[in-house]
Specification:
The structure holds two protein chains of two kinds. By secondary structure, chain A is mainly alpha-helical. Chain A contains eight helices and no strands. By secondary structure, chain B is an alpha+beta fold. Classes of the chains: A mainly alpha, B alpha+beta. The complex binds iron/sulfur cluster and FE2/S2 (inorganic) cluster (FES). Chain B: Its EC number is 1.3.5.1.
C-alpha cells in the first residue's frame, strides 16, 4: 500500500481520511433512504439517478468500494500489529478506567458492520448487478421503491438491520471524532466539533433504524 | 492495613514469569506504595527469599523511573501522579492489589517489575535535540522572542518524564504520547525549527522500528499520564509529520 503507509502516523491519517469519506457517504445514503418515508416518487427518482448516472456509477462507486475495502483491511492490519505490540498480556487490565468501550472495541463494531455489508450486498447490490448487467433487463425508473421495501417484510432482517446500526452507532461514537484528532485537528473548536460528531453518530443510525421499522410496520 | 499483593515475578528476560501472592500486614495509609514494597522486601529478605525488584530513583515524581501497573492501571488508580507519589490511603484494609510490569514488546522485562525502556532513549536520540552553535557566539536563549502560548505549550510538553505509562495504558502499546511530547517541545520553539522536518520523521521512524503499536485515539495515555501530557501533542505531531513528509 505504498511507502507512506509504512509509518504509523500515515496509517492513522489514511484510516481517518477513509473513515471521514465513509461518514460522508453514509450521510448521502441516509438522505436518499429517508425520502422513501416521505415520497416513493422522490425515492425512485433519486435511486434511478444514482443507479444510472455515469459519474456516480463509473467514478464515485469504485472510489466508495475502494474506501470500504481499504478501511476494513487497514483496520484488521492495525489490530494485528497492535496486539503484537503488547507482547505478554496483563493479568489485570482496567481499560474502563481510562478509555471508552467503543474506542477499545472498534475491531468488533467494525466486524459487525462488515458482516452487515455482506447482507446488504446480497440484498441490494447483487440483485442490482444481475438486473442491469447479467440479465440486461430494461430500466424501469419506478421499480426501486417496491424492491426496497419488500426487504423490510421479514422480521429477522429488520432485527439484523437494527442490531447492525447499533454497532454502527458505537463505531461512529469513537471513530468520527477520532478521525479529526488523527488528521491533526485539535484546537479550541474541538469540543464543539466533538458534540456534533456524537450527535451525528447517534442520530444517523437511529434514522436508518427508524426507516427500517417504518417500512416493516407499514407492511404488517 | 492487611493486604494481599499479587506480584509478577520473573527471574530474567529469558524465563517465563508468573503472579505470586504475598499477604502483608501492618501497612499504614501514610506509607507510599514503594515504601509498602520496601516493607515486603525486608520481610522477604529476613526469610531468605529474593526481594521483589522494581525501578525507582527520585521517589518524588520527577525522574520517571518508577513504573508499576497497579490494579490494571499504570501508576495505580490516582491521577496525575507517579507510582512513588501513590499512597496506601488510596487502598482499603483487606484489598487485593495486583502489581505487574509495564507491558509492551518494546519494554522487555529485565527482572520482576523492571522493564527496559531503552526504546524511549533511542526515540529521543533519533531527533530529540537542537543544534546550538557553542563556538563562542551563542545567542542567549532569552534574546529570542517566543510567543507566550507556544512557550507555555512547549514547557508543558517538556514536563514528560519518559515513564512509559502512556504505552502501558494504551491497548495498542503505542508510544505516540511520549514521542509527540518530545516532538512538540521543540516544534513550538524557534530553536527547534532548523531540524524540524527531519526530527519528526526520524523520531516517528524510530518509534515504529521499536515495535510500538498504532495509535487509535482511545485517550487512555492522556488520562494515565502522571504529567497530564495532552493529546493535542499527538495531533500536532501528526500535522508536523504529514507536512514534513510532503516536503520530503
Ligand atoms: S507522556 Fe506522560 S505517561 Fe508518557 S512517558 Fe511522558 S510523562 Fe510518562
Ligand atoms: S521514582 Fe522518580 S518518578 Fe517515581
Amino acid at each position: 500500500m505504498g511507502g507512506i503507509i509504512k509509518s504509523s502516523v500515515a496509517r492513522k491519517f489514511a484510516m481517518a481520511l477513509s473513515g471521514l469519506f465513509l461518514v460522508f457517504f453514509l450521510l448521502q445514503h441516509f438522505t436518499i433512504n429517508f425520502t422513501s418515508v416521505i415520497s416513493p416518487d422522490i425515492f425512485n427518482e433519486l435511486s434511478h439517478f444514482m443507479g444510472n448516472n455515469f459519474v456516480v456509477q463509473a467514478l464515485l462507486q469504485p472510489v466508495l468500494i475502494f474506501g470500504v475495502i481499504f478501511h476494513f483491511i487497514m483496520g484488521f492490519i492495525l489490530e494485528i500489529q497492535n496486539r503484537n505490540a503488547r507482547g505478554v498480556g496483563y493479568k489485570n487490565y482496567n481499560g474502563n478506567a481510562n478509555s471508552s468501550w467503543m474506542s477499545r472495541n472498534m475491531i468488533y463494531s467494525g466486524a459487525v458492520i462488515l458482516a452487515f455489508l455482506g447482507l446488504h450486498f446480497y440484498d441490494f447490490w447483487f440483485p442490482e448487478i444481475s438486473h442491469k448487467y447479467i440479465h440486461g433487463l430494461p430500466e424501469d425508473p419506478t421499480r426501486y421503491y417496491e424492491e426496497t421495501i419488500v426487504k423490510f417484510k421479514d422480521l429477522w432482517r429488520v432485527i439484523l438491520y437494527v442490531v447492525s446500526f447499533i454497532f454502527l452507532m458505537l463505531h461512529l461514537l469513537h471513530g468520527f471524532a477520532s478521525s479529526f484528532q488523527s488528521v491533526g485537528f485539535n484546537n479550541k473548536y474541538s469540543k464543539g466539533l466533538q458534540g456534533f460528531t456524537k450527535a451525528f453518530a447517534i442520530i444517523i443510525p437511529l434514522g436508518f433504524i427508524f426507516i427500517a421499522l417504518f417500512h416493516y410496520i407499514n407492511q404488517l | 492495613m492487611k493486604l494481599t499483593l499479587k506480584i509478577w515475578r520473573q527471574d530474567n528476560a529469558k524465563t517465563k514469569g508468573k503472579m505470586i501472592d504475598y499477604p502483608i500486614d501492618g501497612i499504614e495509609g501514610d506509607m507510599s506504595f514503594l515504601e509498602m514494597l520496601d516493607v515486603l522486601n525486608e520481610e522477604l529478605v529476613a526469610k531468605g527469599e529474593e526481594p521483589v525488584e522494581f525501578d525507582h530513583d527520585c521517589r518524588e515524581g520527577i525522574c520517571g523511573s518508577c513504573s508499576l501497573q497497579i490494579n490494571g492501571e499504570p501508576h495505580g488508580p490516582d491521577r496525575l501522579i507517579t507510582t512513588c507519589q501513590l499512597h496506601m490511603r488510596s487502598f482499603k484494609d483487606g484489598d487485593t492489589i495486583t502489581i505487574e510490569p509495564f507491558r509492551a514488546k518494546a519494554f522487555p522485562v529485565v527482572k520482576d517489575l523492571i522493564v527496559d525502556r531503552g526504546s524511549f532513549d533511542r526515540i529521543q536520540q533519533a531527533g530529540g535535540y537542537v543544534s546550538v552553535n557553542t563556538s563562542g557566539n551563542t545567542v542567549d536563549a532569552n534574546a529570542i522572542p517566543v510567543n507566550k502560548q507556544n512557550a507555555d505549550d512547549s514547557f508543558a510538553a517538556a514536563t514528560c518524564i519518559g515513564c512509559g505509562a502512556c504505552v502501558a495504558a494504551c491497548k495498542n502499546a503505542s508510544a505516540m504520547l511520549f514521542t509527540s511530547a518530545k516532538v512538540s517541545q521543540y516544534a513550538l520553539l524557534p530553536q527547534g525549527q532548523i531540524e524540524a522536518t527531519e526530527r519528526v520523521q526520524a523520531m516517528v521512524r524510530q518509534m515504529d522500528e521499536e515495535g510500538f503499536g498504532n495509535c487509535s485515539n482511545t485517550g487512555a495515555c492522556e488520562i494515565e499520564c502522571p504529567k497530564g501530557i495532552s493529546l493535542e501533542n499527538i495531533a500536532r505531531m501528526n500535522r508536523e509529520y504529514m507536512s514534513a513528509t510532503s516536503k520530503g
